[in-house]
């Protein structure tokens, strides 16, 4: 098992390096001149040239990549003389649009994304598994039909549309909640909750839909297993059978997919953050695309990649713990 | 003939089980009645799809309650399983009546160790026992069912066991509470031939040791001859013959039994390992033939317009061996064809 974990981690690191190369080169090949962008439209060629040197874009792309990689571990200095400044390790570059180190930009926006993801994740797992279980236990009855309808509507609802609909109906028409304006939970917890509740719910309902279906089908499949029949024949209570026999089996694929979905969210819930104007990493990425802010894009993409690769490793390891048949081989 | 003064351990009375499916109502068990007495081994034989497993499952109310409709009576030690509270039935499951299923590869929960699963069966009916003591009971049981080095294997998972060893675990689960009645639904069908004999011997040894009553569903006539006292032959959800083991092999009293046991050559029966196959195929349980369900395949049928095609035959005593047969042919005919050609 330990060997398995070490091997998986090793591959994860190799994969991350590959992703970083790919992202870096892909964005570097875009036909934009970061040096020109850094000082606006009415820029003198001398300033552009100076900026290019200051930001390191005069060097070859390989050297640039090397400096980027080195910056992650030892930090990076920009400029010379009095204009010199440092992005300390781990440095993911410097945004000349926002005049800030990418790492500190991510440090500001990531907590918002994390709060959004964690809250939505908890809600959606509860809704998804709960509704799915109710449907499975009442197969063919109205509860099941209702849950199935919820699942099919939920999966096909575009986040953008549903988010706006929620915003309009709840905030503008019925005025149940004030217009969301994000505050850090450390500064103003009630305001934080009021701002987050709608995005949490929107994200949770949309994501819960597929989990409803997964739970329902997984449970129904498990209930047909011979070993469940033997469990009943042993004289076990329904509750025990559901927990130790049915759910135990149905949860395995759910854990896998949930891990990956959660990791994907951590990389930035782009649409939800944009609709509800949450200052998270997703919204920052969109801004960066609009502004051609390459360093920020490379940084957020790298962070998202780290989460997804890590989630894959964790899910693989969890799988080994959940299914003894995988563990031994 | 068997002599039964005591109360039966199990009494099934006019059991009917039907499933509502998209294609129609499947009448899987259609009016079955029989008694099983203490210490006996009763074998149930019949073609695939004749309702043996559904019947066995209803004894512990294991059939899916949302699609199955079950009527009749199933008496276990004075309790009618079909009308009892769920908690009462739960108390019977695994303690008074235990079950062994056909496929040991899928009967065990893959996510827990075999020790956990045997212990679980014990602890659910002995909640006062500590986990530590239960482990000792489990180890003893594993020794009894012939699992080598049980101290090591108790903490292993089902996939680490061979089919035969898994079936031993299933037997250990079944016997851990010393049940009065063991229902074994083709317990050896999925196993290698050499292992089949071992498992069967084990069951018979344990039957003596625990004084159990066994209801055994099997396709293997050799097994029937070896272990059964009483044999029930099922066809299309009904009992067509119930007889002593001697009688069924020497003088079966139903045309279907003649075919099944290969005793009457007129069926052109061919041996396929265990039961003989009868030409023609079993009827659809959604639309059974009128009258006797077997008449379209029966070479002794009384022909068109006869009772065979209009009236369901009921089980009645035939001959003086204590046999019961559900056939419209006259008693003398059944006895004479049966005895004339019976012995194998
Ligand atoms: N849950 C169910 N829903 C619908 N039909 C069912 C269900 N369970 C069993 N049946 C039907 O009931 C009939 C009897 O099935 P059963 O499993 O009892 O046969 P069997 O005699 O045990 O056969 P085998 O020797 O193959 O095990 C079959 O036609 C089967 O298709
Ligand atoms: Mg069967």
From TrEMBL, chain A:
Instruction: State whether keyword Transport applies.
Output: yes
Instruction: Note the topology in the membrane.
Output: Multi-pass membrane protein
Q: Which residues cross the membrane?
A: 9-30, 114-137, 149-177, 189-211, 251-276, 296-322
Subcellular localization(s) per the UniProt record: Cell membrane
The chain positions of domain ABC transmembrane type-1 read 110-319
Residues folding into a coiled coil are: none
Instruction: List keywords of the entry alphabetically.
Output: Cell membrane, Membrane, Transmembrane, Transmembrane helix, Transport
Say where the protein is mainly found: membrane
Tell me one GO biological process term: transmembrane transport
Keyword hit for Nucleotide-binding? no
Q: Which GO terms describe its cellular component?
A: plasma membrane
The name under which this protein is listed is Unannotated protein
Automatic annotation (TrEMBL), chain B:
Q: Which UniProt keywords apply?
A: ATP-binding, Cell membrane, Membrane, Nucleotide-binding, Transport
Q: Which GO terms describe its cellular component?
A: plasma membrane
Lipid biosynthesis keyword on record: no
Q: Which GO terms describe its biological process?
A: peptide transport
* Pfam families per record: ABC_tran, oligo_HPY
| Domain spans labelled ABC transporter | 12-261
Query: Subcellular location, in the record's words?
Result: Cell membrane
Q: One GO molecular function term?
A: ATP binding
Q: What topology does it adopt in the membrane?
A: Peripheral membrane protein
Q: What is this protein called?
A: Unannotated protein
Organism this protein belongs to = freshwater metagenome
